[in-house]
Specification:
By secondary structure, the protein is α+β, with helices and mostly antiparallel strands. The protein contains 27 helices and 31 strands. Helices cover about 35% and strands about 20% of the residues. The structure holds one RNA strand of 86 nucleotides.
Length: about 800
RNA sequence: GCCCAGGUGGCGGAAUGGUAUACGCUGCGGCCUUAAAAGCCGCUGCCAGUAAUGGCUUGCGAGUUCGAGUCUCGCCCUGGGCACCA
């Protein structure tokens, strides 16, 4: 018999599928639509990774399955090709990034096609294509006109190795997410996106999504909503502050989530960068404060926010008045208060806050307990942050925390010194990069007119094709050096103006690409509204958890902004999200070139074929779990395919077309169809494959079977191992591709076997298994069970107190004590 | 410190509160072969036993239940995330 040879049959079918456009999605309104998407790859110079193979195989299986189930499936891909790695290796190799991108894309596309991924290649997009980034720029201008993009000179995260600014989301443990270099703070003119305006919507929107819980919580934490109050403390007139400041009746506004503890506030702290520091500091303290602030500036972000380090601070010499008791409270400067969060100032309640407690202890500041765990038992170990009743709080004494909060807030609001406030950890998005390989920000700076958007008709603003695109490190993009490109006529006056030379971050192109797939060649709009209306939202989105707060948050933000701009009518882009677990090296470590544990998918395909790689990637374990690559197990799934090949070809010779009969084989087949269907829908690809293996183990023992059994087996195998399935399908005499064939069904009544095996327990321990007709009565079953020798032996040791019978499942005799 | 996920054979893992260890890998024995590879057949959680069978077993300890890997409570460990966020 001809042996299984994937190296011959796989390229043949790959060509067939492409030639016959079997993956192309039609804008067909008769069938129900399904938009199945995976996070498009960054075409790096390393080529496809087995991690790509895992995620793309999974979404491919879902897409193939849904097509056979009769859905109109949109399953596209493309290239997220702007960004630093390409630019860096372009510099190293002396090849232009555009050219390098072209090469990398060609390699990726070839590798992905070889895996049999059923993408609609006619919808392929590339974020670096001017026809694509024209619309990225167009969206930016929309955001700009909505007031969502603004220019600011702010201290930003600067990577001294990548020589560019970074968004907060790109800084991990104070280091550059990409290269691991410690990030510095640098004041730089930046374009910022006002994502904070959508903080609440981004939080609310998470509620209706079918996403992994941990990603939802990651986003919630990142947005970091806190409810509390802003309270105003007025500077004490009697404290010796410079007269000018006194005349203005200065106040310090603090933020707290626990206004009910205000009677326990014994001092106030402001951040070292707080604008009032210079104003309120007394002459006696000026030197100490100046020194402290200078020291703080020199520390890195990591040093400063190290929780384990001892707290430091210095007294300003100034006092504020407690808004209720009117007692003077000293104002300190300390770097444990952050300017960027809340108001940059706090009221310190050392009795009920760990940090304030440590600080107060160190500097001998008073500690006043105002919450008691239980009324009358005032001793609690401080700091105490739990619930209880208020004490030492004047007329609020005895109130529970929640009621006390209301009462005290009422008091403060009466005096107009407090208001409720909600604040977020989320910061605005630093959107400019000082590098070449990104979308130019389509704005023009005119001396006379100020910032002027590039007119829509002049989009795209194309990257100039230049030779020197090395980063400058000066805070200017390399584009700034290209005078011929920078100089441009102002769109609104006759003067010569200058282009914005910063480029967009890599996240720009990926924040809306899923819209473009619905209408990728549209020249008039980013996509036709009716096509977006028909295809969106993305029904199934698969990707890595590393994008939990980057891409997934940015994309949700852009969609909400575009909705407010009237461009789309979508509020959430991704209905259902599934995250893939990492594929580790055989040593259990993350794959990396330096460790030498990288598995190259090309080599696996060359040795075993793409079907084996697909099957193995799915069989490794649960899709969302990370796991180590194991060469021995690949041989196992490859063996399975070889045996399928032989079994089907052997049985094809002596099978005949025949009606379905209700034999054990038919029952098992329908069970298998059911299991594969349900497991595929639930992304449990590993158990779907186990079901296929179990069926095959039974099938291969059969001397002959009906043709229909083989056909249905191949159909349910086909999303997982499309090449071998297509070949065997043809060899069974089929003229039409498996892709065009309907998914087989099952009948519940066939799955009810006539005879069942019933476990019999005595006191919950298995003592026998009996075979009984499914329809037989409980009485008969009990009798049959009692006749089992092993059961009888245990029953004779006591009297039966109770019999538990779960129909079809088990029988349990419970004996009296 | 806080939040999330997880802990099941030698290994990857499977199990709507109902036969724990499916499926695969490894290992052992056998067949085929001059031999090896490949392939095929059988066995393979642990302990005792020739066997029938019995006992034990899902990180640890308790609880609910006729019955718990699964539910509840308390701990331990591993992985991931957040972190002077007031």
């Amino acid at each position: 018999m001809e042996s299984y040879n994937p190296q011959v049959l796989e390229p043949k079918w790959q060509q067939y599928w492409l030639d016959n456009r079997l993956f192309a999605a039609a804008d067909d309104t008769h069938k129900k639509k399904m938009y199945v998407l995976d996070m498009f790859p960054y075409p790096s110079g390393d080529g496809l990774h087995v991690g790509h193979a895992k995620i793309y195989t999974a979404s491919d299986i879902v897409a193939r399955y849904l097509r056979m189930k009769g859905f109109n499936v949109l399953h596209p891909t493309g290239w997220d090709a702007f960004g630093l790695p390409t630019e860096n290796s372009a510099i190293k190799l002396g090849i232009h990034p555009a050219e390098l991108t072209k090469r990398n894309v060609a390699r990726f596309r070839q590798q992905m096609q070889r895996l049999g991924l059923s993408y609609d290649w006619e919808r392929e997009i590339n974020t670096t294509d001017p026809q694509y980034y024209k619309w990225t720029q167009w969206i930016f201008l929309r955001l700009y006109k909505m007031g969502l993009a603004y220019e600011a000179t702010v201290p930003i995260n600067w990577c001294p190795s990548c020589l560019t600014g970074l968004a907060n989301e790109e800084v991990v443990d104070g280091k550059c997410e990409r290269c691991g270099t410690a990030v510095e703070q640098r004041p730089l003119r930046q374009w910022m996106l006002r994502i904070t305006r959508y903080a609440d919507q981004l939080l609310q929107g998470l509620g209706g999504l079918d996403w992994p819980q941990f990603i939802i919580e990651l986003q919630q934490n990142w947005i970091g909503r806190s409810e509390g109050a802003e309270i105003i403390f007025t500077l004490d007139q009697s404290s010796a502050v410079n007269p000018q400041a006194m005349a203005e009746k200065l106040t310090i506004k603090v933020f707290t989530t626990r206004p009910e503890t205000i009677y326990g506030a014994t001092y106030v702290v402001v951040a070292p960068e707080h604008p009032l520091v210079g104003v309120i500091t007394t002459p006696q303290q000026r030197e100490a404060v100046t020194t402290y602030v200078a020291q703080t500036k020199q520390r890195t972000e990591v040093e400063r926010t190290d929780v384990t380090k001892e707290k430091t601070g210095v007294f300003t010499g100034a006092y504020v008045l407690h808004p209720l008791t009117h007692e003077p409270l000293p104002v300190w400067v300390a770097d444990y208060v952050l300017l960027a969060y809340g108001t940059g100032a706090i009221m310190a309640v050392p009795a009920h806050d760990e940090r304030d407690f440590a600080f107060a202890t160190k500097y001998n500041l008073p500690i006043v307990q105002v919450i008691s765990p239980v009324l009358g038992k005032d001793q609690a170990e401080l700091p105490y942050s739990g619930d209880g009743v208020l004490i030492n709080s004047d007329q609020s004494d005895g109130q529970e925390v929640a009621a006390g909060r209301q009462m005290i807030m009422g008091l403060l609001q009466q005096r107009a010194v407090a208001q409720k406030a909600v604040i977020y950890k989320l910061r605005d998005w630093v959107f400019s990069r000082q590098r070449y390989w990104g979308e130019p920000i389509p704005l023009i700076h005119c001396k006379k007119c100020g910032v002027v958007p590039v007119p829509e008709k002049d989009l795209p603003v194309e990257l100039p094709p230049i030779d020197t695109y090395q980063p400058t490190g000066t805070g200017e993009s390399p584009l700034a050096a290209i005078e011929s490109w920078v100089q441009v006529k102002c769109p609104t006056c006759p003067n010569i103006a200058r282009r914005e030379t910063n480029t967009m971050p890599q996240w720009a192109g990926s924040s809306w690409y899923f819209l473009r797939y619905t209408d990728p060649h549209n020249k008039q709009a980013l996509a036709a509204p009716e096509k977006m209306q028909w295809w969106l939202p993305v029904d199934v989105y698969m990707g890595g958890a590393e994008h939990a707060v980057l891409h997934l948050l940015y994309a949700r933000f852009w969609i909400k902004a575009l909705r407010d701009a009237g461009v789309i009518s979508l509020t959430e882009p991704f209905s259902r999200l599934r995250s893939v677990g990492l594929v580790m090296g055989e040593d259990g470590q993350k794959m990396s070139k330096s460790r030498g544990n990288v598995v190259n998918p090309d080599e696996v395909v060359a040795q075993y074929g793409a079907d084996t790689l697909r099957l193995y990637a799915m069989f490794m374990g649960p899709f969302s779990a990370s796991g180590a690559w194991n060469t021995g197990s690949i041989a196992g799934v490859h063996r399975f395919l070889k045996r399928v090949w032989q079994t089907v070809l052997r049985l094809a010779e002596n099978s005949e077309p025949g009606p379905e009969t209700t034999t054990d084989l038919e029952v098992l087949l329908q069970q298998t169809i059911k299991r594969v269907s349900e497991n595929t829908e639930n992304f449990k690809f590993n158990t779907a494959i186990a079901a296929l293996m179990e069926f095959h183990n039974f099938l291969e023992k059969q001397p002959h079977v009906s043709r229909s059994v083989l056909e249905r087996f191949i159909l349910v195998l086909s999303p997982y191992a499309p090449y071998i399935s297509e070949e065997l399908w043809q060899r069974l005499g089929q003229k039409q591709s498996v892709l065009k064939t309907a998914w087989p069904g099952w009948k519940e009544q066939v799955l009810q076997p006539a005879v069942i095996k019933l476990p019999v327990q005595v006191n919950g321990k298995l003592r026998a298994t009996i075979e009984v007709a499914a329809a037989v009565s409980e009485e008969h079953i009990v009798q049959a069970a009692q006749q089992q020798l092993n059961v009888a032996r245990y029953l004779s040791q006591g009297t039966v107190a109770r019999v538990v019978y779960v129909p079809g499942r088990l029988l349990n005799f419970v004996l009296k004590e």
